[in-house]
Amino acid sequence: MAQYKYKATTGEGKRISGTMNVADETDLQQRLHEQDAFLISAKEVNNNKASRQLKAKVLGDFSRQLSTLVGAGVTLVRALNIISTGEAVKPREKAIYDDILKQLRQGISLSDAMEAQNGAFPSLMIYMYRSAESSGNLDKVTMQMAEHYEKSHKLESKISSSMTYPKILGVMIVAVVLIITKFVLPQFGELFNQMETMPMSTRILMGFSDLIQNYWFWLLLGVILLIVGLRLLLLNRSVRIFWDKIKIKVPLFGKLNKTICTSRFARTLSSLYAAGIPIVSCLQIARKTIGNEFIDDQFDQVIPFVRAGNNLSDGLDLIDGFVRKLTDSIRVGEETGSLDDMLQSTADSLEYDADIAISKLVSYVEPLMLIIMGVVVAFVLVSVFSALYGSYGSIAGM
After folding, report:
1. Biggest distance spanned by C-alpha atoms of the chain
2. Confidence (pTM)
3. Phi, psi of 8 (to 5 degrees)
4. 174: burial class by Cβ within 10 Å (0-12, 13-18, 19+)?
5. Cβ-based neighbours of 57, under 8 Å, separated by 6 or more
6. Of 35, 97, 22, residue with least CA distance to 66
7. How many other β-carbons are positioned within 10 Å of the β-carbon of residue 125?
8. HEC readout, the chain
9. Cα–Cα distances in Å, from 254 out to 245, 295, 326?
10. Phi, psi (degrees; rounded to nearest 5) at 74
11. Over its length of 398 residues, how does the chain's per-residue pLDDT go in tens digits?
12. In sequence order, which residues have a C-beta less than 8 Å from that of residue 238 and are 6 or more positions away?
């Protein structure tokens, strides 16, 4: 589908203009003719600007509302009109829905209209909707997509909320260190400077305090530049692949990342395969939902392997980054002829495993952060009081 900007005239001689997503200029002429209009001029619009993908919660809400309305016998155009005018719909979402609605009124299919939104809707959703339009079960597929994205949102929310407390502890550690070095230690500076010798820990602490006092601007600038530099570095695909490889290899965190990535892939593959989409196309779409470029990159070898007629389980065995349960379950499904059911149960099982893994991770991180905070505070107290004890000893010996 391409977008054309056109000028046309109606049968009454009135000039009209606008944009329309069509296959080519001939298709544009045909569609205008159906509207009793005649094409004057047309120009293809090259819109390469990518749109940020809608959040999983928004996609889930959109699919659920559409399923409910279409299942109740509401026409697609009216359903989109109801969804776009909802009170909770944000301006950007409304603009996307309104554009889809406009294209539906022009006779364009829902999946093509969604695809024309430059990335606002994921490929999985577009393919599933297109499959539903062909089979005539849009209400069922949209409900399936609603459940899919609601589960994705639940998993993302679980990860985000589980890291809230460790983040708060991390901020507290930094705040405690800054308060002590910026405001507390300078009060002892004059006393410590009169001492002939200080313990090593006290010298380190006072040196860090002087660094904060005199060079805080350069330290802050250095941190900002470091963050920006890392972000720019991650724009390089080779660096991202290397970083994503580390994320699934590191102890504790690596196991969690493997489980989450495998869960995402299994859920997407299950949905696509159940919709009757060919397995190679399923793999091409599902690889983009994993969220790890190291694993994604390995599909360049897996897809030709499966296309050549080899088993899916053997192909996925070649991937470094998936938990073993996935390939074992798929192999059983291939042997018993129930691959779709096995994919569904495996996806459910892996989502449960991911939930348990997140809970375990939090149980490790929280005490670790508390230990770090305790060590920092203890180091400061020992450094200060050991120096004070030494100064009192010197005074008593005079």
Report:
1. 112
2. 0.66
3. -145, 170
4. exposed
5. 149, 150, 153
6. 97
7. 25
8. CEEEEEEEEECCCCEEEEEEEECCHHHHHHHHHHCCEEEEEEEEECCCCCCCCCCHHHHHHHHHHHHHHHHCCCCHHHHHHHHHCCCCCCHHHHHHHHHHHHHHHCCCCHHHHHHCCCCCCCHHHHHHHHHHHHHCCHHHHHHHHHHHHHHHHHHHHHHHHHCHHHHHHHHHHHHHHHHHHHHHHHHHHHHHHCCCCCCHHHHHHHHHHHHHHHHHHHHHHHHHHHHHHHHHHCCCHHHHHHHHHHHHHCCCHHHHHHHHHHHHHHHHHHHHHHCCCCHHHHHHHHHHHCCCHHHHHHHHHHHHHHHCCCCHHHHHHCCECECHHHHHHHHHHHHHCCHHHHHHHHHHHHHHHHHHHHHHHHHHHHHHHHHHHHHHHHHHHHHHHHHHHHHHHHHHHC
9. 9, 13, 17
10. -75, 140
11. 566 788 888 877 788 887 776 656 777 777 787 778 888 888 776 554 556 888 889 999 999 999 999 988 888 899 998 998 888 888 889 989 988 988 888 888 888 888 888 888 988 888 888 888 877 888 888 888 888 888 888 877 877 777 777 778 778 878 877 787 777 777 776 666 666 677 787 778 778 777 877 887 888 898 899 999 988 988 888 898 999 999 888 887 788 888 888 888 888 888 888 777 888 888 888 888 888 889 999 998 998 999 888 888 999 998 998 988 888 888 998 888 888 788 888 888 887 887 787 777 777 777 887 888 788 878 877 877 777 776 655 555 44
12. none
- The torsion angles phi and psi of 319, rounded to 5 degrees, stand at -90, 130
Which residues lie closer than 8 Å to 294 by C-beta, 6 or more apart?
241, 242, 244, 245, 248, 320, 321
Specify burial of residue 312 (Cβ count, 10 A radius: 0-12, 13-18, 19+): buried
